[in-house]
């Protein structure tokens, strides 16, 4: 017993040591994030009082005012580094009174990269005695700069200096975050910048007169995040990471010895409030913490899972490190001049790193490319050699079947591969590359080969071959096999049955679509609940929200109501897991396609590790519902339980019982099919809804779009005297809203191609005489057709009522013809769900998207609820124009950082 007790004591001590957040000597360097806590303190009410004083005096100014009021000038050396002013009457280069520390930029403030039309940096300086902090606004348009003083409003009519080191700063929306080394984070209000007199004191001089140690402007502290854990943490540097969802904040420690803990932590940010995410007690707990153990780290940024770290080396040059958690950090010794400090990341121009240096005489702002460190050149050369070897193997053993004699876009006659220049055009300007292919070859009835992801070459057939493609059965030209090749699920999931036998989609077409009227009330209810949850129900002030973040959550919740029903459709863990799976399906497929064939099984499986882990998590969340639903299936089909749900999940289980009995008992199989169905219904719908709102608001000035849609939606909703209920018949009356949907998808469909097919046999010859070899995958261009001037007038312009005008005119003509007792053809359908050779967003023929009817109803309900219950507008800095979509090769994504202003409407 004594020996057992000793073992338990030893185990307990070991466990305690391993979980100690301050112990970085353990084998595992990852710490429990929730041990690191910041508590939000109440906002400083004195800011509002002082704001009234300065506003009344006409002394409240904007951020742009300060940027445009530069009174000092930076210069640029031969290496492109920015130097502070050093003249006979002013010297920031060598001053010992002030020391530069932190850096942030307008790229942190807003995803667009500019703020109030300004492209600039903000730099923090601490006074040598750490009793005051000044902030420098550097306008990159002319390198002019102006200092301002940070102040703490300690009374309703007075303020004082802020005594912190300010080792790291972050600009986030209309707030500036500044580190207080042992006490946490102070947040300053950039909507309240005040102009003061030129006296030497700090604070109130007399009634209505203020000064700030000679500085013209002051910025007040509005709130404080107080360090609340029982152990010490040194807040030395900080950075914003916009590549995570949601946005997150990185904070790290500077230490001169690894005998002390050197940790990085990550906190989640709420983009809607520009605050840390907190619990009901106002406590923000880190979601990740890690012992990095690199001495003298002065800055850290994270982007797309990769960290860049700066390190100072006394009087020697500084280092830049690259690191992925769990791996070894790679050092670029001497990359920076002496004494580099804080880091900031800018995604523009391929990714840029900004830092400042603090040593007198060598004080710079340094702007460097993320990929530029020269000491990584050796790695690059090794990689190049490895790629060359892979290329040889690829050519010998992984030949992609293509027909002979088809021209390669932008290559000389007889070419069988693409030049690097054409590959680069595919990666950076695919829309124009496809447009050229369409106009030069396809529109004239000729096939062409264009570049694809990684090493791929894509055969594209002309519009004249559309009917020929749809005339072949699936045993010869298979859409399922083509998608299985592209999605790479044989490697990511270990089985391609989910696409080769996609019965989860067949059930939508055959069983769900015919009963859509029965789902209307539940779907409409969930749309309202979701919007109320994420946008609020109380009328009042305008709030600014990230459109994509809101829409993907609303769509996920609404979709889940008809896929799996209550209560899982409101379970945040289920919804978040489903959303993560959507991204992971794309990541694993993209990784596989971009890899050489010889590596594809390995790279795809590696990229799919998070996917498989989340599928197991989803399985565990679904298990109780699955077991409950199986009980319903035990009843005779002739005597069903009246309480049996009729959502998609139950329909899937019923189909499996009848047609795929070997799959019914395999919960992992059922879960994977559910996840693939969720991808189809959630992912594209969230993109569509985001672009739809941006297009509506962006076209408001010219077309009065919001008012036109509100009038139609309210009129149709009330057409049967029951405005809270939607039916198929009522949906069919929404013509202008339908046009907005169709026009949005015409211009902003996710992919640029359609009608994908894989030849399963030899001897297939196209209508233009091209012999398609077995294994060849081909497709047609959709985006290029949908934006062709030969098909649509002003094809690249968003015209919300482009299709409704035609439909309304035809309806008017039909009414006149009926009145005159004449017949008349209605012409081709131009609805959101109708497909044609000029509108391929849902593909065409028997493989057209089976869920498009459900998506149609969902989007119309969402549009009706949103416009009926909220006022919407774009932020002022957008100047009435929607941000453009983001192209990644041939895929088009909505701008995921785009925002809108929202206000709940008063009920009449």
UniProtKB/TrEMBL annotation:
PROSITE patterns: CYTOCHROME_P450
Biological process (GO), any one: antibiotic biosynthetic process
Pathway: Antibiotic biosynthesis
CDD domains reported for this sequence: CYP503A1-like
Superkingdom of the source species: Eukaryota
Biased composition regions of type Low complexity, renumbered to the chain: 811-820
Signal peptide boundaries: 1-18
Location of region: Disordered: 806-827
Keywords: Antibiotic biosynthesis, Heme, Iron, Metal-binding, Monooxygenase, Oxidoreductase, Signal
Cofactors that this protein relies on: heme
GO MF annotation terms: heme binding; iron ion binding; monooxygenase activity; oxidoreductase activity, acting on paired donors, with incorporation or reduction of molecular oxygen
Family as reported in the entry's similarity comment: Belongs to the cytochrome P450 family.
PANTHER family per UniProt: CYTOCHROME P450, P450, PUTATIVE (EUROFUNG)-RELATED
Name of the protein this chain belongs to: Cytochrome P450
């Amino acid at each position: 017993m004594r020996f057992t007790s000793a073992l338990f004591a030893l185990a307990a001590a070991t466990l305690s040591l391993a979980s100690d957040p301050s112990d970085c000597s353990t084998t595992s360097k990852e710490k429990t994030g929730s041990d690191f806590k910041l508590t939000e303190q109440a906002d400083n009410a004195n800011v509002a009082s002082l704001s009234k004083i300065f506003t009344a005096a006409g002394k409240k100014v904007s951020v742009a005012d300060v940027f445009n009021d530069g009174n000092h000038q930076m210069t640029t050396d031969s290496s492109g580094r920015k130097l502070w002013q050093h003249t006979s009457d002013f010297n920031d280069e060598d001053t010992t009174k002030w020391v530069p520390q932190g850096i942030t930029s307008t790229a942190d403030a807003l995803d667009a990269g500019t703020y109030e039309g300004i492209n600039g940096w903000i730099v923090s300086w601490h006074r040598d005695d750490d009793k005051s902090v000044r902030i420098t606004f550097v306008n990159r348009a002319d390198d002019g700069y102006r200092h301002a003083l940070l102040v703490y409003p300690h009374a309703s009519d007075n303020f004082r200096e802020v005594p912190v080191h300010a080792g790291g700063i972050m600009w986030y929306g209309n707030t500036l975050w500044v580190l207080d080394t042992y006490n946490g984070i102070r947040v300053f209000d950039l909507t309240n910048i005040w102009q003061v007199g030129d006296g030497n004191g700090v604070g109130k001089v007399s009634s209505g007169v203020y000064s700030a140690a000679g500085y013209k402007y002051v910025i007040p502290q509005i709130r404080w995040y107080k360090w609340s854990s029982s152990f010490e943490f040194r807040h030395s540097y900080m950075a914003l990471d916009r590549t995570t969802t949601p946005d997150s904040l990185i904070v790290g420690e500077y230490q001169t010895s690894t005998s002390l803990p050197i940790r990085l932590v990550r906190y989640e940010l709420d983009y809607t409030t520009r605050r840390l995410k907190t619990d009901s007690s106002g406590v923000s707990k880190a979601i990740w913490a890690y012992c990095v153990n690199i001495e003298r780290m002065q800055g850290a940024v994270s982007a797309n899972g990769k960290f860049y770290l700066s390190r100072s080396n006394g009087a020697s040059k500084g280092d830049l490190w690259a690191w992925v958690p769990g791996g070894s950090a790679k050092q670029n010794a001497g990359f920076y001049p002496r004494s580099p400090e804080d880091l900031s990341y800018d995604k523009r121009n391929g990714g840029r790193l900004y830092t400042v240096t603090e040593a007198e005489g060598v004080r710079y702002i340094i702007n460097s490319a993320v990929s530029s460190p020269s000491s990584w050149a050796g790695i690059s050369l090794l990689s190049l050699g490895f790629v060359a070897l892979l290329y040889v193997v690829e050519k010998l053993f992984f030949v992609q079947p293509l027909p002979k004699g088809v021209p390669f876009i932008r290559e000389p006659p007889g070419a069988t591969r693409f030049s690097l220049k054409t590959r680069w055009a595919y990666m950076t300007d695919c829309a124009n590359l496809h447009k050229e292919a369409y106009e030069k070859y396809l529109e004239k009835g000729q096939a062409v080969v264009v570049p694809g992801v990684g090493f791929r070459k894509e055969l594209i057939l002309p519009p004249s071959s559309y009917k020929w493609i749809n005339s072949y059965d699936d045993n010869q030209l298979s859409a399922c096999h083509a998608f299985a090749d592209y999605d790479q699920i044989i490697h990511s999931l270990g089985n391609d049955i989910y696409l080769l036998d996609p019965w989860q989609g067949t059930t939508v077409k055959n069983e769900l679509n015919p009963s859509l009227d029965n789902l209307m009330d539940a779907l409409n209810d969930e749309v309202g609940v979701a919007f109320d949850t994420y946008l609020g129900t109380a009328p009042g002030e305008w709030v600014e929200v990230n459109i994509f973040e809101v829409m993907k959550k609303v769509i996920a919740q609404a979709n889940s109501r008809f896929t799996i029903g209550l209560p899982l459709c409101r379970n945040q863990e289920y919804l978040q897991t489903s959303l993560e799976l959507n991204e992971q399906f794309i990541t694993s497929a993209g990784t596989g396609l971009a890899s050489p064939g010889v590596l594809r099984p390995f790279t795809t499986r590696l990229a799919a590790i998070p996917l498989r882990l989340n599928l197991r998590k989803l399985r565990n969340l679904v298990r109780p519902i699955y077991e409950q639903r199986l009980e319903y299936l035990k009843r005779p089909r002739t005597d069903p339980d009246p309480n049996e749900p009729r959502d998609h999940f139950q329909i899937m289980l019923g189909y499996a019982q009848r047609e795929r009995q070997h799959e019914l008992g395999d919960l992992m199989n059922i879960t994977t099919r559910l996840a693939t169905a969720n991808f189809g219904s959630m992912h594209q719908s969230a993109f569509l809804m985001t672009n739809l709102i941006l297009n509506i608001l962006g076209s408001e000035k010219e077309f009065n779009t919001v008012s036109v849609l509100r009038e139609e939606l309210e009129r149709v909703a009330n057409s049967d005297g029951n405005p809270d209920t939607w039916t198929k018949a009522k949906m069919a009356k929404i013509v202008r809203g339908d046009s907005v949907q169709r026009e949005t998808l015409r211009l902003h469909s996710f992919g640029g191609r359609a009608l994908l097919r894989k030849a399963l046999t030899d001897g297939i010859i196209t209508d233009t005489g091209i012999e398609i070899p077995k294994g060849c995958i081909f497709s047609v261009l959709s985006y290029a057709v949908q934006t062709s001037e030969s098909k649509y007038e002003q094809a690249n312009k968003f015209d919300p009522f482009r299709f409704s005008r035609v439909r309304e005119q035809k309806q008017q003509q039909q009414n006149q013809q009926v009145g005159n007792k004449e017949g008349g053809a209605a012409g081709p359908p131009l609805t959101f769900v109708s497909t044609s050779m000029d509108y391929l967003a849902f593909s065409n023929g028997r493989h057209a998207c089976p869920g498009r009817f459900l998506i149609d109803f969902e989007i119309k309900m969402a549009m009706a609820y949103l416009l009926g219950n909220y006022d919407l507008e774009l932020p002022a800095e957008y100047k009435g124009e929607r941000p453009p979509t983001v192209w990644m090769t041939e895929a088009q994504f909505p701008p995921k950082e785009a925002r809108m202003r929202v206000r709940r409407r008063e009920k009449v």
